[in-house]
Amino acid sequence: MKVTANQQAVIDIVARNPQGAGVDTIGAALPDISRRTLQRLLGELIEAGRLTRRGKGRATTYALAVVETPPALEDYTTFIPLADTSRDLIMRLRKPLAARVPVA
Predict the structure, then answer these.
(1) What secondary structure letter does DSSP report for 21?
(2) pTM score
(3) What would the pLDDT profile of 11-24 be if each residue is shown by its tens digit?
(4) Alpha helices per DSSP H over the chain
(5) Cβ-contact 53, 13 below 8 angstroms
(6) Chain Cα centroid distance, residue 72
(7) Which of 58, 17, 22, 57 is nearest to 42 (CA)?
(8) Any residues with CB less than 8 A from the CB of 74 and at least 6 apart, and which?
(9) Looking at domain 5-64, which of 3.40.50.620, 1.10.10.10, 1.20.58.1370, 3.40.50.1820 is its CATH number?
(10) Contact 47, 56 (CB under 8 A)
(11) Separation between Cα atoms, residue 61 and residue 14, nearest integer Å
């Protein structure tokens, strides 16, 4: 999902409030956006996984969603048993091209 300028403005305001921000707080910071449009933007951002909603009714607050990053490719060596020669080969291939020893 491509984030629009208004959505990014909402994300920025929510990011400045780590404990969460309510619709009134966000609306006060964005006076050019109507309350209904702001509610629609918040719904879109929740649906996209960018924000999370806590509470109900007037006590509802919005916070940045915690995005879990997938394990890095280097981490596969911790859960896949490799032979010593395989580990050696991987270490050689991870070096930059300029640092590798030519074969032929």
Answers:
(1) B
(2) 0.63
(3) 999 999 888 999 99
(4) 5-15, 23-29, 35-47, 76-79, 84-94
(5) no
(6) 15
(7) 22
(8) none
(9) 1.10.10.10
(10) no
(11) 9
